Amino acid sequence: MTKPNNLQEMKIAIVTDSACDLEPEIIREYDIEVLPLHIIYHDREYRDRVDISPQEVYDSLEQEVPKTSLPAPAEIQAVFNRLREQNVTHVLALHLSSGLSGTYQAVSLFAQEFKDMIIEVVDTKTLSMGLGISVIEAARERRRSMDFEQVVATAKKTVQGIKAYYVLSTLEYLKKGGRIGYVAGTIGELLHLKPIISINEEGKYFTFSKVRGREQSLRKLKDVMLDHLKESMASIAIVHGGSEAEARDLEKIAREHPNTKELFFGQISPALGVHTGPGLVGLIVYPNS
User: Fold this and answer.
1) Concatenated DSSP letters for 86-120?
2) Which is more confidently placed, 21 or 194?
3) Other C-beta atoms lying within 10 Å of the C-beta of residue 89
4) What is the mean pLDDT of residues 238-262?
5) How far apart, in whole angstroms, are the C-alpha atoms of residue 115 and residue 145?
């Protein structure tokens, strides 16, 4: 990284992608730049959460399972150009796992062209609100300190502490999208085994637990959350892909627990949802005191 040529007051920007699953009001509150991933159907293309909503994608999955792609090069360049025009001196870019998307690599490549800004691009090795909570914590540190090194350190510390767990209705969508990772070993098992998947240090999916049936898998997810909350205060995010009622049940338990420091709830990004399929319920935990 090269330092800005002219001496000026530090001005820090935070960039992420639409896989962060942050609600629009949070994005506005913390002044976060979001690069949209793309949803591609055979005859049209949409920007994730800009031109198409998660529910619209889930509602049409039976007709067509779209492809996804990373933000367009012109979109990445436009964001950095705009930040430069705003006299930003430092940029922290936090992106979804490089094990699941090429977004981190693409942003890293473009960042090299902007020599007049200090740009740190971080592969969070996670996705959804695992990425989202990391972005929020970095933005809060920016407000507190306006110290770029401290903002980066806070983001990386949060990334290291995040735990994510997902219950899926089927593994078929992960297989079709080539995102099966280390979950492949479960496919030959009895079909009524419902794995709870998580993300490893490489940023790829693996089987955290194999549970018999949907009801048992959701009960196991609840137990995992309660085990975390037994150990310490934690920020909790509950996400879903077309399974709001089941996700709300988990949210209610988290809301009533005294060790829930902060609670987020939302629908998973369409760019992620096309790979997990309808029926996802996810739990993201960030232990803190």
Assistant:
1) TT--EEEEEES-TTT-SHHHHHHHHHTT-TTSEEE
2) 21
3) 20
4) 95
5) 24
